[in-house]
Amino acid sequence: MCLVVFPFKKENPQVVLNNVKIAAEHPRVEEVLCVGVEKEETYRSLEQNIPTVKMETNTEINLILQERLGNKRPGKGDGMNTALKYFLEETDLERILFFDSDITTFAPHWITKALEGADIGYPVVRHYFPRASTDAMITWMITKTGFALLWPTSELPWIEQPLGGELLMHRSVVEKLFKEEDVISRSDWGIDTMYTFYSVMYGFPMLEIYISEGKLHKLYGKLTDLKTMLVECFDTIQSLKDKTFSLMSKNSSMENLSVCNGGIVHRAEHPHEVPADVFEKIGFDIEGSMTLLMENWTSKMEELLDLFPRRVRDGLLANKKGPSFSFMDEHTWRETYFVLLEHFDATDEDWQELIFKLWTSRVLCYTTTIALRGYYFAMRYLYSMIDRYMNYSARQIIKKIKRAKKDENNSST
Ligand code: DGY
Questions:
Q1: Do 322 and 235 belong to one domain?
Q2: For labelling alongside 409, which of 68, 86, 116, 261 has CA 20 to 30 A away?
């Protein structure tokens, strides 16, 4: 039996309540937990309506407010971590499942499929969904790119949707994660990255299940809607950049590179169907996002650009006169990413605006040169871009290991 959790803030209460009901009606769900940010309208509406759903379904349903557990912006991380705490302290259930509360396509098989994965021995089961070629731009350009560049031989870059909020964890996973300071302190959008990173770090086998009908939720407008998420997701990757998987440091030889660096048992279900609207959907407002590159320049941002290769600095500054983004191709983004890893300061507003502009130019470059060539072309490109990043970084690591060995041999002779 399991606990199903819906973290929420301001949502359509009807949508949340409907999802709560679906979970509560599921024969393998023992309890449903809703975790709110504050006592606003959605919270009050749930408070009023949950007793009826409880009666109708005969399932335990609880509504709580998130605790202040972390030290970043109080957000989704506090909500999810509050649920982990509740799961460990208030229940003796084996499994916890998280679902975003605003999904309008949620259905019982989302629970069944995850539980069936757990039944055959996977302590982590993650849902993944077909997404439009211009959607998931933080996932592709920040998270998967970072995983590929920093831990190229680990399983991390292979995880389909590392920022997904729909997942199952066994109690043994939660016990480990809840002791991890990085996880508990991450109260913001970085939480998904932390859960993903540490479940791989601890070597838990992972299954990814494909939900072909997709996850329909509120659409984004201009890319500014994603600015906070972008900053927090990059900040999380940056905070982890010096971590190496323990096996890696113990066996730093070339021969075992592929197995030792966070290689875990990881299976992903084949993505059989892609619904028509995923082909047609545009992930964000393209024209509106172009003008964002031209606005909000400060002299400090211009100075910070001196840290980057010249074509990045000149290319981005050209936006002061008119939209310029075609310079931010895959290679330029890789170089930009490494500079950001070294210098970015998530607490500084100029840095926040600068990373936002750099990322926006990457997204617009990709959208106008790749995504417009169609869904399958774009998907092939995105996966192979990650392959190229992994390859590049793995080669750098191999070179380093070879150099270190040579030095060691030289010094011993
Ligand atoms: C992502 O990149 O996955 C975010 O959800 C925005 O689409």
A1: no
A2: 261
Please tell me if the CB atom of residue 226 comes closer than 6 angstroms to any atom of ligand 1.
yes
User: Which position has the higher pLDDT, 354 or 400?
Assistant: 354
Site to substitute for ligand 1 among 139, 236, 285, most atoms within 8 A of C-beta: 139
Which residue matches tokens 């008119």? 322
Computed over its alpha carbons, how large is the radius of gyration of the chain?
22
139 CA distance to ligand 1 centroid (A)? Answer: 5
- Over residues 164-180, mean pLDDT: 97
| Whether residues 109 and 146 fall in one domain | yes
Q: What is the mean pLDDT of the chain?
A: 92
Res 353: pLDDT: 98
384 pLDDT higher than 90: yes
pLDDT tens, residue by residue, 200-241 = 999 999 999 999 988 766 556 778 889 999 999 999 999 999
pLDDT at 51: 96
Distance of alpha carbon 307 from alpha carbon 318, whole angstroms: 17
Q: Identify the residue whose C-alpha is closest to ligand 1 atom 3.
A: 136
163 lines ligand 1 (CB under 6 A): yes
- Do residues 253 and 292 share a domain? no
For residues 117 and 33, membership in a common domain is answered with yes
DSSP annotation of 369 reads H
Atom of ligand 1 nearest to the CA of 226: 6
Do 58 and 194 sit in the same domain of this protein?
A: yes
Looking at 225, 259, 277, the residue that finishes a domain is 277
Which of helix, strand or coil describes residue 206?
strand
Cα(78)–Cα(183) distance, rounded to whole angstroms? 10
Ligand 1 proximity of 201 Cβ (cutoff 6 Å): no
323 and 264, same structural domain?
A: no
* Cβ neighbours of residue 194 closer than 8 Å, sequence gap 6 or more: 77, 177, 180, 182, 183, 186, 236
Express as a percent the part of the chain with pLDDT over 90: 80
- Decide: 300 and 351 in contact? Cβ < 8 Å: no
Quick one: 244 and 317 in the same domain? no
Within a domain: residue 70? yes
Q: Is 230 in the pocket of ligand 1 (CB under 6 A)?
A: no
